[in-house]
Amino acid sequence: MNEADPAVTYTDGEVDVNDSTQRTLESMAAERYSRRQAMFRGAGATTMAFMGTGLLAACGDDDDDRGQISVTAGENAATSSGRVVNLTGTVTGLVGDTAPSWKQTSGPSATLMGTGSSVSFIAPAVATATDLVFTYTAVSTFGESASATTTIRVSPAALGFAAVAHFTGDAVVVPEGYTVTVVTRLGDPLAQGLAAYKNDGTDTDFDKRVGDHHDGLVYFGLSAAGGVDAASSTRGLLVQNHENITQKYLHAAAPSTGARLEAEVVKEMNCHGVSIVEYNDAGGRKWSYNQNSAFNRRITPFTPMDFHGPAAGSAMLRTQYSPEGTRGRGTINNCANGMTGWNTYLTCEENYAGYFRRDVSDDALRTPRELASLRRNGVASRTGSYSWSSANTTNTAIKRWNATISSATATSADDYRYEMNQMGWVVEIDPYNPNSTPRKRTALGRFGHEGAFVRVAADQKVGFYMGDDSGGEYLYKFVSAATWAAADANAADRLAIGDKYMDNGTLYAAVFNPDGTGAWKPLVYGQVPPRAPSTSYPDGYTFADQADICVNTRFAGDAVGATPMDRPEWTTGNPVTGEIYLTLTNNSGRSPTTTNAPNPRSYQNNPGTGSQGNPNGHIVRIREDGDTTSALTFRWDIYMFGVDSTDYPSNPNVNVSGLTPANDFSSPDGAFFSRATNVGGQINPLLWIETDDGAMTDRTNCMLLAALPGHVGDGGAVTIDNGGGNTQGTIVGTKATGANLRRFLVGPVDCEITGIDTTPDGRTMFVGVQHPGDSGTIAAPGGHWPAGQDGTTPTATTRPRSALVVITKNDGGVIGL
Questions:
Q1: Quick one: CA dihedral 98, 101, 107, 111, positive or negative?
Q2: For the whole model, what pTM was predicted?
Q3: Which InterPro entries does the record match to this protein (predicted)?
Q4: Which residue in 42, 56, 298, 443 has a CA-CA distance of 20 to 30 Å to 459?
Q5: Domains in the chain, please, with CATH?
Q6: What would the pLDDT profile of 21-76 be if each residue is shown by its tens digit?
Q7: Distances (CA, A) of 753 to 219, 395, 645, 768
């Protein structure tokens, strides 16, 4: 178009010559835009933040607001890490085809769950109070958008439940806001077509049923295709130990005496071992097990095993079944456990010694070294637990429980004189391969293995921390020769990776110094001196090779001067700091004159009347110098002392940690830190403590507690007066409070609370309940659980069963927070 010239009267029609009162579209739009701007100018920033509202104007009649929409994002709010936050937006006006949506616009990342106007998220882990901002946006029918924001201030993680009170009833009790579901019990079928468990003593086929005495467990995520999915929180394999049996409830009548019936022995043996079971979430954390899964498997005392490491092939492992000493059958008394960084399970053989029988004639046919080894490892029974070897049978899997040398001319290929040396190991299992053969890892030593916590850290050797569960025994660690390679986490041949990290390395025993320092003493042939003679072992003991050290690890611990502890049980590690926690469950043999710095108390269970010892136990923690698994020195303190606070409300020599009825406990056993894959295991991880108590059960059943612990060195030195002029200096952590330790669960009568794990997202917890109601008889059981957990009334003769429970938070949040 040409530029306008005042002298030229030409116009292209821009001049309005219509004098009617009809308004133009241009004027209407201009007025609407001007009004909208005035509204926004009139609503300052403070007002908008308070209202959480955005406004939009779109084309339409001046007196008709149908083209407008407004949105509201709700009020600002505050919460803490791990808790569920619900966001709800509202829209006024006509919304277009694009659905309203939420988006996080600042702060640490949170995963929004849901779509549309209502979404939720789990507050992420934060070290200090932190603001997260979320924007809610809607689009009108004319394509213009309006937004509003809301701010959620997240504080660091805090225990988010009311403490459960002492309880002596026959149920599992959890805080308000949580739900307990029983999923698998003793005898539940694990194969297609196998009948449901009748629970009357007539059931058979326990090689295809869930075993007894549920103990340590680990959840392994399973993909839709049936492979490893470490992030899956809706489908997985639960691998769980079965430590022992409640014999009387397994049979229709009293167990056979004298020569045991073979069928009864087979049943009892198969109730030991390990179960691998597939579990699925049907939605909303509604869990059940899949009876027909191809992954389901029982590993029992009959299952073939391979030996690996320094003792494989040793003369001390040779038997009639394996004259070469490289193979064995089964696993027994499986207590605590471990999970490797390459997706395998470690089950630990604890009190194996009592299952073996040795006749009187055996002593004369043994060498002095063999007799010393048998005594140091507790193989002394003349019948063996449950008298299995008395059965009249040709089945050598049963006859092997008699470790008596058969004759003066026989060799180890003719009998089972060394069968006891085939037990007492850490056993590695690949849960994803039902056809794999478990491997016994002899480099990790042989003793009363309670657990084997595995610490995997970038650019470090792999560390395995293990307790020997007996009074006066030791804490051990094994450090791999190989440095961790991250690619091994996803290896297809998982047991081959186990060979890499568990067959070659160095085994150590721990020495705790009185000043809060400690040292790891290598148990390496050529570096371990002979065990010095003593009253019980007047000949001492000289090691022949590394295999000898692995088989007779207790002697090696003696020889290097390891510190005797009060029944070292579970080990677990803080996923953030790497600090290792060791539960010391109790020690009836600890006297005022035999205390030491890490085991400083000897007192009466009941003031003035109880037996002297350490009946309530305590928890020690260590931090490796340099925070490396291969460190040879460490610092330690006592994190927490168990006590019955009703008996000892304020005695500083007994209730050292200041426990109250809301958080007192006795005999800590299981211990577990929440997984690093969820908020519960980040920044300041949750520690879970399970109990196996007999000293405080007049007050309450066994329990599970949740803690937010500090760190090694957060307390100081104290001196404990054990009476009679016997004092003991020690190092203690900060005292308990309602904010850092609370009782989360109490189990049914007679039980022990055992294994524990969570799904990777921390929103489902699995807990084992062992030997409930075992104080009674077949006619009158001591309890009936899990019958009755659902609110029904069991019959008077309903037999109790060990079982696994699932615990979920009703609002879907992270357990414990």
A1: negative
A2: 0.92
A3: PhoX (IPR008557)
A4: 443
A5: 25-155 (2.60.40.10), 178-352+423-523+560-809 (no CATH)
A6: 344 333 333 343 333 333 333 333 222 233 333 443 333 334 444 458 899 999 99
A7: 17, 35, 20, 6
